User: What shape does this take?
Amino acid sequence: MDETCFNRHEQEQELENDILHQIQSRESVAAVQDEKKNDVATGEEVVDSDTADSIDHSIPLRGYWKRRQLIEKEYGDDRSWLTIFYRPFFTISFPAVIWCGFVYGAQMMWLSLLATTQSEIYGAEPYNFSAGATGLTNFGPLIGSFLGMLTGPLVDWLTIKLATRNKGIMEPEFRIYAMILPLIANAVGLLAYGLGAWNQVHWAVTVVVGQGCLGFAMSSSGTICLTYVMDCYPKMASECLVLVLFIRNLIGCGFTFASQPWLDRDGLKLTTWLLFMLSIVINGSTLFMVLFGKKFRKWTMHRYYKYSDPYFGEFFKTKK
Assistant: This one.
């Protein structure tokens, strides 16, 4: 893979001005090309003009092995590793990040549920699957996850439609309207998997419908939540992503150790109903973010601009 550690030293305003200049240059070129087409159509002589080039040819192109070097010294991040380590924890005061972490973490609960119960369900009556056949049931959530990935373009399409109705202004909350899909799929999947196994229905119901819907919910909800957070705090997308995954993994790890004692105490039927209600509450909290997400973003605006300085929090090193 190409080495990707590249630190832009331009000031943000200078970079934005450069981008705007390039856009205007391309628009000028497009206008010139339209004039050429009109001149050709009318039989007039066409005079060539300079075209906009956004590439700075004074910068030498790096060689093949240079782009794959293990340690980057020329364009690497000059901040300390300690700063990079604790900067994500500044985003703990951003409600959108915490919400995303809990919703995404809930999906790890369902994944842990499948890993914990598959052998118990399919290895016993009436299924009596072998170890290999039990492992093949994972094709259900696998295919569901592939289908859940397709929600990415759907979310983009929905966001554009809602922005068009909002006089062309896009709000990050438009993305999480699509959470209705994983909310329904999550609830259906839990009931079909848990109650289906409890009532000893045909294995296709628990595998195709149950695990398939859970796989869809796990994949699609992550896509929706993460893009929402990145739209809320684009200048701190990396830090937000790290904290979201940190919360997600904490929840997934905790549920892995709690799921089996829970099943032993309450049984599969009651546990399924409790998880079903929990999924409705967690995924349904999207409505709360739709209503108050913009207020939360306004509330965190000043902290966001302060934290978005990449050198903010570098307490143990003087900025160069």
Summary: The CA atoms of residues 14 and 20 lie 10 Å apart. The chain is about 65% helix and 0% strand. The radius of gyration is 26 Å.
